[in-house]
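As promised in the previous annual report, we have extended the structural survey to additional targets. Below is the entry for Type 1 glutamine amidotransferase-like domain-containing protein.
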Amino acid sequence: MRVFICGGGAGAQTALARKYLNESIDHTKPCLYIPLAMEPERYDGCRKWIAGELSDVNIPEIRMVRSARELEEAELMDYSMIFLGGGNTFHLLCELKKCNFLSRMKSYLEKGGVAFGGSAGAILFGKDLDACTFDDSNETHMQETKGLDLLCGISIACHYTNRTPQRQEAFRRFLLELSKGKKIAALPEETTLLLEDGVCKRIGGPLYYFENGEEKVEDRDLQVS
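The corresponding structure token record, generated without further manual editing, is:
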């Protein structure tokens, strides 16, 4: 299992993470791209974006799904990697639940699969979606918003420090309050965590860790096992 948990950056922000990604995959198999956090009318733009974003990753093809039904038909072991893109995290989770994708992806990862999640896609790998309520509205009205919990009880927040000063301070205070009841790893767009063998290797920028109403800046790998 290799899981890349990205704070929501792209291009130069995630160049080093993509280098690690390129070293992790089977170059004979295509990439499965899931843009379902976005509105359907933006999918054509998503296709152009992912082609540019992964232009330095050696894969023969990028196959993009446009619906939960298409995703349900995908044989995951045929793919070198799964790329979960950004958008509204609640909408993404709702679509994935329609085809029981979370349990299927977990099985894929346990068999040695590789996944890359950016922003909404990254948040799904944490314990729950609570931290994203600062940015995302739950128009799906889902009550059950647990993630895959691959970080052993740690939730994920994205785009940390990549905001206006006023918005950043409001987000920081929100996470401080939320962390009184949970653990949160807040990732700037330049930061990616690589989860492998119970260790989250930090790639790129810093990691901000919230627990018990306190914030710490971590400059080391995150132990999660």
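The chain has one domain: 2-223. DSSP finds seven helices and twelve strands in the chain. These points will be discussed at the next consortium meeting with the crystallography subgroup.
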